[in-house]
């Protein structure tokens, strides 16, 4: 993938310089989408909501764990004094609640991960569209995402702060 991008960029630069006969006419920028996601007001708000949801789920999980632990302690301490039928009923209740707890943990983890992915995908999609709009408005030849393919870029071609500012302004309206 990196090699393909390098080849595409090399060809782009070669044709771009041959077409305009000057590499100075190229206007290149980059954005750090992760940084923009984390610094935008919408991203911060979404992250805070997600954190509150996680805290809420953790408190529910803690209550359920305590309930299972109480049953286990009851069986351990008083199990030998219970009637066999009562002990079997409590043992089955302990197993059922343990299974339910495990399922709840898995379902909650999956749900939170899914909500995080959806939130991230929605915001990143909006940021990409806005970066494309900035590129068209300001005459950029190419805007790249900072990451594995950008080995070096001068600070003056970093459009991340501009992107965050425009995104926040756009969302306030």
What does this protein look like?
With 173 residues, the chain is mostly helical. The protein has one domain: Skp domain (Protein Binding, DinI Protein, Chain A, 2-Layer Sandwich), CATH 3.30.910.20. The chain has five helices and two strands, in the order αβαααβα. It has a two-stranded parallel sheet with strand order 1-2. The chain is rod-shaped.
CATH homologous superfamily assignment: Skp domain
> What is the C-alpha radius of gyration, as a whole number of Å?
27 Å
Distance between the termini: 39 Å
Taking the sheet with the most strands, its summary is: 2 strands, parallel
* Second-tier CATH architecture: 2-Layer Sandwich
How many alpha or pi helices?
5
* Number of structurally distinct domains: 1
Low-confidence stretches at least 5 residues in length (pLDDT < 50)? 17-23
- Shape assignment: rod-shaped
Give the strand content: under 5%
- The CATH class is identified as Alpha Beta
Strands of the widest sheet, in order across it, are: 1-2
- CATH fold title: Protein Binding, DinI Protein, Chain A
Order of helices and strands: HEHHHEH
Helix content: over 70%
Tell me how many strands there are: 2
User: What is the overall pLDDT average?
Assistant: 85
Structural class: mainly alpha
Q: Helices and strands in order, then pairings?
A:
Elements: H1 2-20, E1 28-31, H2 33-39, H3 41-78, H4 84-137, E2 142-145, H5 160-172
Parallel strand pairs: 1-2
Helix pairs in contact: 2-3, 2-4, 2-5, 3-4, 4-5
